[in-house]
């Protein structure tokens, strides 16, 4: 039998009693059906309520669409004939704020841009609506937020109407979209501004929302997905950002209004210092490469630099190999021990050697895999004790290829 949904008439009903019609085992949980309930079942983009039923924790609420029975998934058997249900007020009120915020924001975008809301999702941290427009500018977002803010400050009443069917609803109310059902229709009105067919829970007045804040928007399919916060979520977000900016300003010993200019200066200074650091690093690597080449043993007219590094960054080793092989007739055979043994091979452009082929021949020494081109190759393995052996084998193969 269809369950009477108490929240449809009173979204602020957090405690209720009901008769248990059935309670059956379902895996590690039990499913209870009641003659009436204040628990909202997941539907229309809004998640289910949480709370307790007969002392058992409610972990999910769904509705059988054919029978209209609301099914409460609980963590243990509900054994009494008549039970008390308690709704998690924090979760319910949050969902009420987000859902009413969605109605308000959707109508603002429709009113200003004729953008229809094609879908809605109320998430744990953020709520989204998908709009039927190809793009959305920051100016358009600001205009929608400003209109929503004005309606919130006006503290407009949010009320429920009922229509006999879809045709009756469309005849009596200026709906944003036609009802999805052709039976009795519940209409949620934001007084004089929005009328939407909806079975969700909502606040009684727009003032409860405090604010609606768009946090991001992105392309989604053929439209735009808008991420927003309303009510307590928006207030907490503002408090977090306010504390963050004040702390930043305090640390930089300046006013909050001066942060954008100061951050710009810090960014420019950081970029300048990174350029200087890279230039200095390049000069050091060039000097190191010159020293390594000078000390390298000549082999068949070329110089082979063979080294095993410990604790040096791989990117730095690869950069050094590039500096060494930028010099004429040079070969770099580098390895690293550490948790992930690595091999880095490279040669000058004026030598006829296939470093990728040489690497593949010596990789078994480190139980490794890798590859590359004739000029440069790289691999990694599991055996650090085989790195020196791999380099010795590679040096021998280079000498052989050079005709020594």
Describe this structure in words.
35% of the residues lie in helices and 30% in strands. The protein has eight helices and 21 strands. Strands 2-3-7-6-5-8 form a six-stranded antiparallel beta barrel. The chain has a six-stranded mixed beta sheet with strand order 16-17-18-19-21-20, sandwiched between helices. Helix 5 crosses helix 6 and helix 7 (355-362) packs across helix 8 (387-401). The protein is elongated. The model has no long low-confidence stretch (mean pLDDT 95).
Average pLDDT metric: 95
Let me know the largest β-sheet: 6 strands, antiparallel, barrel
Q: Whole-number radius of gyration?
A: 34 Å
Globular, elongated, flat, extended or rod-shaped: what is the shape?
elongated
Short description, anyone?
With 404 residues, the chain is an alpha+beta fold. The protein contains eight helices and 21 strands.
Map the helices and strands:
Elements: E1 4-5, E2 15-26, E3 29-34, E4 36-37, E5 51-53, E6 56-63, E7 70-74, E8 82-87, H1 89-113, E9 117-122, E10 127-131, H2 138-153, E11 158-163, H3 166-172, E12 185-190, E13 194-197, E14 212-220, E15 223-230, H4 232-251, H5 259-295, E16 297-299, E17 302-309, H6 314-325, E18 330-336, E19 342-347, H7 355-362, E20 369-372, E21 376-380, H8 387-401
Parallel strand pairs: 1-4, 17-18
Antiparallel strand pairs: 2-3, 2-8, 3-7, 5-6, 5-8, 6-7, 9-10, 10-15, 11-12, 12-13, 14-15, 16-17, 18-19, 19-21, 20-21
Keywords:
404 residues, six-stranded mixed beta sheet, alpha+beta
């Amino acid at each position: 039998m269809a369950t009477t949904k108490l929240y449809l008439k009173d979204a602020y009903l957090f405690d209720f009693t009901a008769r248990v019609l059935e309670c059956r085992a379902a895996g590690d949980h039990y499913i209870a059906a009641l003659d009436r309930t204040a628990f909202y079942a997941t539907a229309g983009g809004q998640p289910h309520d949480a709370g307790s039923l007969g002392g058992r924790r409610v972990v999910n609420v769904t509705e059988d669409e054919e029978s209209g029975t609301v099914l409460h998934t609980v963590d243990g058997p509900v054994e009494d004939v008549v039970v008390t249900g308690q709704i998690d007020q924090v979760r319910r009120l949050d969902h009420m704020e987000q859902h009413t915020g969605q109605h308000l924001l959707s109508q603002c975008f429709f009113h200003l841009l004729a953008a229809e809301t094609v879908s809605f999702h109320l998430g744990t941290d953020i709520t989204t609506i998908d709009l039927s427009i190809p793009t959305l500018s920051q100016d358009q977002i600001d205009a929608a937020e400003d209109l929503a803010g004005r309606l919130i400050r006006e503290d407009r009443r949010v009320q429920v109407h009922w229509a006999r069917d879809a045709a009756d609803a469309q005849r009596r109310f200026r709906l944003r979209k036609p009802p999805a059902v052709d039976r009795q229709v519940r209409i949620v009105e934001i007084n004089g501004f929005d009328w939407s067919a909806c079975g969700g829970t909502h606040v009684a007045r727009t003032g409860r929302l405090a604010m609606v804040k768009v946090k991001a928007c992105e392309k989604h399919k053929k439209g735009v997905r808008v991420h927003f916060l309303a009510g307590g979520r928006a207030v907490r977000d503002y408090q977090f950002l306010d504390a963050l900016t004040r702390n930043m300003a305090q640390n930089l010993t300046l006013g909050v209004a001066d942060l954008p200019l100061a951050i710009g200066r810090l960014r420019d200074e950081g970029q300048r210092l990174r350029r200087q650091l890279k230039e200095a690093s390049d000069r050091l690597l060039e000097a190191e490469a010159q020293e390594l080449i000078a000390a390298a043993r000549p082999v068949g007219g070329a110089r082979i630099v063979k080294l095993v590094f410990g604790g040096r960054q791989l990117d730095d080793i690869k950069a050094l190999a590039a500096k060494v092989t930028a010099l004429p007739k040079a070969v770099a055979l580098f390895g690293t021990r550490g948790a992930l043994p690595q091999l880095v091979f490279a040669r000058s452009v004026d030598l006829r050697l296939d470093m990728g082929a040489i690497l593949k021949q010596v990789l078994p020494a480190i139980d490794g895999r890798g590859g590359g081109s004739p000029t440069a190759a790289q691999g990694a393995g599991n055996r650090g004790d085989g790195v020196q052996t791999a380099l010795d084998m590679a040096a021998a193969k280079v000498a052989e290829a050079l005709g020594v």
